[in-house]
Amino acid sequence: xxxxxxxxxxxxxxxxxxxxxxxxxxxxxxxxxxxxxxxxxxxxxxxxxxxxxxxxxxxxxxxxxxxxxxxxxxxxxxxxxxxxxxxxxxxxxxxxxxxxxxxxxxxxxxxxxxxxxxxxxxxxxxxxxxxxxxxxxxxxxxxxxxxxxxxxxxxxxxxxxxxxxxxxxxxxxxxxxxxxxxxxxxxxxxxxxxxxxxxxxxxxxxxxxxxxxxxxxxxxxxxxxxxxxxxxxxxxxxxxxxxxxxxxxxxxxxxxxxxxxxxxxxxxxxxxxxxxxxxxxxxxxxxxxxxxxxxxxxxxxxxxxxxxxxxxxxxxxxxxxxxxxxxxxxxxxxxxxxxxxxxxxxxxxxxxxxxxxxxxxxxxxxxxxxxx
Length: 372
Prior knowledge:
This protein starts with 6 loop residues before the first helix and ends with a helix.
């Protein structure tokens, strides 16, 4: 036992006077501390033993976990592909800016909504490709049945209205789409639905559905709607439509071949026409130039004739005879009939003088008649 300490005396004094136990340095502990510590315990040597607090560390750990939980729930990250709908005491607000945002824990609630384009099959199961008859079988204007599969693309344009304006916005969109699909397909013939009218049908359905979604205002907008497939419900009708389609393709082939032939022959005809026109133009220019030259020569000749009429007449006569005599043929007429002589150019050949003399001796009278 330590010197200067009397644990039994201190305990007796506390019991009698209700005061605090004096410590080794003569100081007393406050009453509230003694009350919290409870009855003081002593070891075998008479030294006081401090009371242990096993739940003190657990409380500190829980406090740290609670503060960490509050810190983790006081912010959120938002990327470019999502909206954030922040609800504060029942009031919703949309956040679209990406980055780090803060919120009040347990007061503000954050839900993320995708900005991307979503797809919805109508009339078939996209995973298996199997047909849903309740959605795909429709009746056309000419009272034929047709299986038509559509694929609807949509996106969220108002996340707050998407979450709170309707309980099931996708289901509402699908029902409206089915209504307008049946309404539009019903005004077309089955041939148009299967072959040539698909683009027009898609355009009309998209326009009607877009306007209706604007009226409903549930936070969804239509991006596009396409016909994935359209076919008759029976094999016989399908074969008939295949035959019709083959005939149309044959028609298109014949038209294309005719257009090809036309495109080949028209340029040839145009080229021939252009050549003829150019030749005619050249002939016209040549004749005009020739006529102008003759006019010019006539004017020159007339000027000479005006100066020397007799000489000009003789010269013109000689020039004319030089042009005519080489191509003339002499016909000798006698009492027995008409006889044709050789052309005059043969009379100019060697020996023609002797022949002419003999001919003149035998037929002097006839030559006289010709000379006359």
